[in-house]
Amino acid sequence: MVGAPSEFDDLTPAEQVEKYDRLFGIVADGVIGAAGGLVGTALMTGVLFIAASMGAFSFESFASLTLPIGLTDVASPVTVGYLIFLANGMVPFPLLFAALMEYLPGERPPVSGLFFGAALWTGFAMGFYTGFQGLALVLYLGFTLIAHLVYGFSLGAVFEYLANRPDSLV
Questions:
Q1: What are the CA-CA distances from residue 165 to residues 25, 35, 159, 160 (Å)?
Q2: Which residue ranges run through the membrane (predicted)?
Q3: pTM of the full predicted structure?
């Protein structure tokens, strides 16, 4: 609409640029986070495939993610559950990482990502546990920890590689 009031109208040109740059930076963080989350979740899935081949992980556990939203009767609850898992790895967790990165240990984002991945692992290990015992339990815990460290490291590495920005904008 021509002539409609804008939130930029009362700002000086320098303030307009600063406000636009801040908004652009937040959107850019979201895109970078989604890219990092996709890379991290893909690599994490590779580690989980190795664990599954050794009998230390069951992809059937992803079906449990369909319970809270009432999609247990879909044709393939494991696939829908994995898509929910992927969406979580690409949206809320990268945004949380972007917000917490400055407060996590580590001088660089990939190192901070290791700590972030380890923190996420604590919930994953309990939430996706399907009754493993003995050596299978040890392998489950080990492989899922490695998978989360890989996720966190790669998320941080993508942030470091793609983020050409000052301190966190979120």
A1: 8, 16, 10, 10
A2: 26-59, 79-101, 113-132, 138-163
A3: 0.80
